[in-house]
Amino acid sequence: MTEIKNINDLLGKSLQDLKNLQGSEKESFEQALKDAIKEASQVEQEAQKAIESFSKGELSIHQVVLAMEKADMTLQTLIQVRNKVLTAYDEIWRMQV
């Protein structure tokens, strides 16, 4: 939710104000993407561990299915974000200046 609030803060600024942003403010989108990728990787690893625990008899099938569904939903969300970013890039690329 704080990221959405930060984007709303940027909407009122001029182009010159955006160019003068400090390092940490410029990296926020990049950092958000990196954090999302790390989280997706972590959820996938948790699903793998759940599968291993199930094979050892430590977890029930329900817990394994939940972990796998969570990993799948995280990956699908990340893919949709990537698709939206690529679509936005294509629209900017085709924009006549």
Description:
The protein is built from 5 helices and no strands. By secondary structure, it is mainly α.
Compact overview of the structure:
This protein has 97 residues and is mainly α.
List the SSEs and their pairings.
Blueprint: H1 2-11, H2 15-19, H3 23-26, H4 28-55, H5 61-94
Mean pLDDT: 84
Assembly type of the chains comes to: single chain
Shape: elongated
| Terminal Cα span | 34 Å
Total count of helical runs of at least 4 residues: 5
- Percent range of helical residues: over 70%
Count of DSSP strands: 0
Unreliable residue stretches: none
Q: What's the gyration radius in Å? A: 19 Å
Overall structural class, as computed from helix and strand content, comes to mainly alpha
Order of helices and strands: HHHHH
Q: Strand-residue fraction?
A: under 5%
Describe the largest sheet: none
